[in-house]
């Protein structure tokens, strides 16, 4: 599979790229291309030997940090990592998260789910903040809170799509609270109960957004702007799902016009 450095333009991350200088935009596009490629390897049907491909990219990441990349994406990764001080874990932990997807791993509790959230979202946040020039404890706290907020929003939004792929990310104890099992989610046999469980996950997501807001208020406005935009976009998507009562057959997404309104909002208001 090939990486596409323009793929971010079609994603929910796209608006966050708009206000970056060219060097940061290019580096973030490279990192997003890596993320997109790893995700496609784990998610797309008929990918030949997905574990083998992830193994290759683990080895390629090691070569990147040894100064010996073999691919164009690897060379681009090396340049971004050198320019913005990105550590190997920004790439390697994401691969671990994709391996969990390949294995169909499920999570008994929120604490177990956070292991996964850190690898597929928290570490992405840290890489993004490397590129934005935010380091230290603020970066750690913001990457975790906003990354977890975004990914739990994805879990709510993509519940039926994930179920079609045989995946359930809602923690077993949350499902049990509403008398559900993973099999109920896979078959969507009790949609009214699933809506309650999704509402419960949405409340967890909102708590992460609240934590992110507290950290964002301490970060320089311009540096934090892409994070503010991303947070506002995903929070609005969660609100749209909530307005539908958490009952839906097709993925609920924001329209282009809705995203434009949110960008304007993010320019003048704090994440809420």
Characterise this structure:
The protein has 272 residues and is mainly α. It has one domain (12-268): Farnesyl Diphosphate Synthase, CATH 1.10.600. Helices cover 69% and strands 0% of the residues. It is built from twelve helices and no strands. It has helices at residues 22-43, 50-64, 72-84, 89-102, 110-132, 136-157, 159-164, 172-177, 182-187, 191-216, 221-243, 256-268. α5 crosses α6 (136-157) and α10 runs antiparallel to α11. The longest helix has 26 residues, at 191-216. The radius of gyration is 18 Å and the shape is globular.
In total, how many beta strands? 0
Structural class: mainly alpha
Tell me about the biggest sheet?
Answer: none
* Uncertain segments: none
CATH topology: Farnesyl Diphosphate Synthase
Give helix and strand order, one letter per element, not per position: HHHHHHHHHHHH
For this structure, what is the CATH class? Mainly Alpha
**Number of folding domains?**
1
Indicate the radius of gyration in whole angstroms: 18 Å
Distance between the termini: 38 Å
Strand content: under 5%
Instruction: Tell me the name of the CATH homologous superfamily.
Output: Farnesyl Diphosphate Synthase
Helix share bin: 55-70%
Average pLDDT for all residues: 92
